[in-house]
Write a structure and sequence with these properties.
Blueprint lengths: L1 E7 L4 E6 L2 H9 L13 E3 L30 H16 L1 E4 L2 H9 L8 E3 L3 H9 L16
């Protein structure tokens, strides 16, 4: 995954995670990337400073905190959305790698409508979208983070 610094035409700044630069460009071209603050789909990559090592000596190891600090940039609205998305993921049936097939079966009325979650590669997700099947990427649960 690549993290890009992004900005919208209303000068809101945020981060986006993408599989590649090409994936970012493709999603932007399809209007799938939007500003979390205002919803604008006029998004551009912003310059980001790469890490540059300035010393040759190894720095002393930093002791990791027991729990990661809260994201100070996350607005209360964004925190509410994140909590809602994680709740949706917890309540959905995990169909694993069968996600594309199960989503199609639900869409075509071949099985009972229900919330599902699972994994699929980018091509499979694009095919679902092209078929008019609504999908929503969900953040990983706390137990799925490294």
């Amino acid at each position: 995954m690549i993290v890009f610094n992004l900005g919208c035409d209303k000068d809101h700044h945020f981060e986006g995670w993408f599989a590649s630069a090409a994936a970012f460009e493709a999603q932007c071209a399809r209007g799938l990337v939007s500003c979390p603050t205002c919803g604008s789909t006029r998004i551009a990559r912003l310059p980001s400073a790469p890490y540059v090592q300035t010393r040759h000596s190894a720095a002393a190891p930093v002791q990791a905190a027991a729990t990661p600090p809260a994201n100070p940039a996350m607005t209360p609205e964004a925190a509410t959305v994140m909590a809602l998305l994680r709740s949706l993921a917890r309540e959905a049936e995990d169909v694993g790698a069968r996600f594309p097939e199960e989503a199609r079966r639900i869409h075509h009325g071949e099985t009972a409508a229900r919330s599902i979650r699972g994994q699929a590669d980018r091509d499979a997700l694009e095919e679902l979208l092209d078929e008019g099947i609504a999908i929503l990427p969900l953040p990983p649960g706390d137990d799925e983070l490294h």
